[in-house]
Amino acid sequence: MAETIRVRFAPSPTGYLHVGGARTALFNWLFARRQGGRFVLRIEDTDEARSTDEAINQIIEGLRWLGLDWDEGPHFQSKRLDLYRAAADQILESGHAYRCFCTNERLETLREEAKAAKKLFVYDRKCASLDPAESGRRAAAGEPHVLRLRVPDEGVAAVEDLIRGTVKVDRSQLGDFVLTRTDGMPTFNFANVIDDHDMGITHVIRGEDHLPNTPRHLLLYRAFGYEPPRFAHVPMILGPDRAKLSKRHGAVSVLAYRDEGYLPEAMVNFLALLGWSLDDKTDFLTREQLIENFSIERINKAGAIFNLEKLQWLNGVHFRALGEAESTRRAREFMAAHGVNVEAYDHGWLDKIIALQIERSRNLAQLQQNLRYFLSDEFQHDEKAVAKHLRKEGAAPLLNEWIQLLSAAPALDHETLEPQLRALSERLQVSFSKLMQPCRVALTGVDASPGLFDVLDALGKERALKRLAYARDHLCKA
Fold first, then answer.
1. How far apart are CA 445 and CA 451, in angstroms?
2. Closest CA to 159 of 200, 207, 202, 219
């Protein structure tokens, strides 16, 4: 029978869902869906001091927003301690591990000596030769200790990575690393291996920052006699300066992008292209296309650059792909969640002004900002736009001409107004653009907006005339 692919996403709940973690989750999810496998969610919360319920909720909320549904879990390591204790007893009894009673002070001294000698710190194995009976008596008496793995002195630990090929590490550099702490809690390396084996994980797809841990994991698999999974270490996500992505490059929380109004479809598409590609020309990919085409072989080794402009572009493409009805529905939903009482407006009118601004907005937060002068008559005029177009000779008389023209116009649509404005432009010997811009700034507060005829039509005659009169009396040069 063919092997059932089983992968997992195993975040530590010590903070928000980072875009790097979300990309790792996505790659695992896509691989499972492409291969007809299972995607397992495991929360690695054994760090009691740093793990929080809020972080757990944010991780789950972020995955759900992206549409990365899991087949099993979430499993919590904090509820699996009996499994780790049994495994610790097993590996100790087999002789592959030993108790270490060295104090923190002694270990710190060894570290300082290694640092002074400019050498890699490796535990000196003082406790490795303790008689098992003596070790047992000291542990039974309550003497603090950790559990360490006996690492072979010589040879090479080789990782066969599906992305990076063979990666070799001299075992002597690994040292006898800790499996359980003095409080009995498992270390990351120990719990990770026990869980992956217990859950039948066949492929471990994770960030390359975990590559140094993998030789240790392979030693643990060997000590237990377990068959190891296959490993694939994906490239790091870098900022435009090629440094590791951090807050100084912008938001790194997935939910921050949701709150800025990016579509989950666009975010999934964007994250998939951070280290993976279909070819050298295709950027827009639906979720279904990603599932159909995803493979580990297409993951790159080189670091992936987080390009915010590309995310913004993809967001616009996906927004347009939704169609007018769905895009306006999502915009209304976002606005309702961010302080706009959408029920106070006619939905037909609201959808019309949303449609005017979709093409001009990078995300839904910017869309909401761009709609402010439609939704309320109380908005701030941009000072630069006012200075350029209203605080100069002739602006007030020009707005007077607009007021007279609009007051007499039977309708404010393009067909009605354009011929009259062309005639006005000719009579005043003012270019069409110079005629339009003072009116645009008076009505919207900015010098870039949807077409002025569309703006006038959406505002209506009464609101437009009030704004023109206000600008003439309060914003134009006296």
1. 14
2. 219
Q: Are 420 and 429 in contact (CB under 8 A)?
A: no
Tokens describing residue 27: 């790659």
CA distance 442 to 457: 15
pLDDT by residue (tens digit) across 246-305? Answer: 766 666 899 999 999 999 999 999 999 999 999 989 999 999 999 999 999 999 999 999
Strand partners, 159: 167
Q: What share of the chain is helix, strand, coil (3-state, %, to 5)?
A: 55, 10, 35
Render pLDDT for 133-149 as a digit per residue (tens, 0 to 9): 999 999 999 999 999 99
CB atoms within 10 A of CB 173: 12
Residue 453: Cβ within 10 Å count: 17
Q: Which of 118, 119, 247, 281 is catalytic?
A: 247
Range 386-389, long-range pairs (CB < 8 A, 24+ positions):
386/441, 386/475, 388/441, 388/447, 389/437, 389/438, 389/440, 389/441, 389/447
- Separation CA 428–CA 171 (nearest Å): 86
Angle between helices 264-272 and 19-35 (to 10 degrees): 80
- Is the bond preceding residue 215 a cis peptide, omega within 30 degrees? no
Identify the CA nearest to 145 among candidates 156, 133, 136: 136
Pairing of strands 72-76, 156-161: unpaired
Answer yes or no: 247 catalytic.
yes
CB–CB of 374/459 below 8 Å? yes
- The Cα 171–Cα 175 span in angstroms is 7
CB 425 within 8 A of CB 437: no
